[in-house]
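I would like you to sit down with the record closing this message with an eye to the fold:
=====
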Amino acid sequence: MHGPVSAAWLLVALCVATGAYCLLRMRSGVEEQRRAAGGEALMGFGMAVMAVPAAVFTPPGWAWPVYAAVFGAAALRTLWAARSSPHHLHHLVGTAAMVYMAASMAASPPAAHHAHGGSGVPLLTGALLVYFTGYVLLSGARLVPAAGTGVATARWGDRPELARACRLSMGIAMVAMLLTM
């Protein structure tokens, strides 16, 4: 990830915490929640790995195509699941964005991973930024009224306001990562 190292570490911490909570959500009694939480955990941990500052660790050249393949497989799985629920369309956009970022990193020379420049924002990056910015604003607006309605006896995996907060966190992280491309 480009940008300040301290911001990158904060992004890594946010994504790891989100991924860890999504793993807890996989213990839910509702199958749909478990399935969604698994995909969200993959996204959280994948985003954390991608956000590690390049000054600390630069993945080998073969890692980016593998990364793109993993998220490509997740995108295909999500595409299949989207037949039954429109909620999966957001996950499809997220996994496709991860494939796009990994492919961009694979296509750029290693020196480009450490320097800014170029001829502006590519069209797909801009479209993803618009989508995820809108998603963050909408998710944040939906989360505010729900913040005080949590049931204290609900299990950690079944708390809808925490699931929404995780999705909001990942949306914010995606915006940050797209801004640094």
Observations:
- Helices lie at 5-25, 31-51, 63-81, 87-107, 123-146, 160-179.
- Confidence is low (pLDDT under 50) at residues 113-117.
- The first helix runs from residue 5 to 25.
- The chain has six helices and no strands.
